[in-house]
Design goal:
It comes from Sutcliffiella tianshenii. This protein is an all-alpha fold. 92% of the residues lie in helices and 0% in strands. The chain has helices at residues 2-24, 28-55, 60-109.
Length: 110
């Protein structure tokens, strides 16, 4: 189905987007938060790939591979979601601290 192809491409693009942001940031809590988001995107990519495999099964092997991909994708998404919820408050505190430090530096230099 074309909808699954769109979702596969969409989730893979988000995975790449979050990985690029992960490598560009220097803050440790934000790195873990972005890693969790990329894990969720990769999990959805694998999940939708497995669903797409099950739409037109060519053999019993395709059915088994599709089910395995769905289970792995769902587990990866779930683990990423738990990690995202855990690191979100830490990333917010870290961003507020960095913003506060930048404000202090601006007042000192002026």
């Amino acid at each position: 189905m074309p909808i699954f192809v769109f979702l596969i491409i969409f989730s893979f693009i988000f995975y790449l987007f979050y990985k690029v942001k992960y490598f560009r940031t220097q803050l440790p809590a934000e790195k873990k938060w972005l890693s969790a988001k990329s894990s969720m995107a990769l999990g959805s990519f694998v999940f939708f790939f497995g669903l797409n495999t099950l739409i037109n099964p060519l053999s019993n092997v395709a059915i088994v591979v599709g089910i395995v991909l769905i289970l792995i994708g769902a587990a990866s998404f779930w683990a990423g979601l738990k990690s995202y919820k855990f690191y979100l408050p830490h990333a917010i505190k870290e961003a507020e601290y960095v913003k506060e430090q930048e404000m202090k530096e601006k007042t000192i230099t002026n």
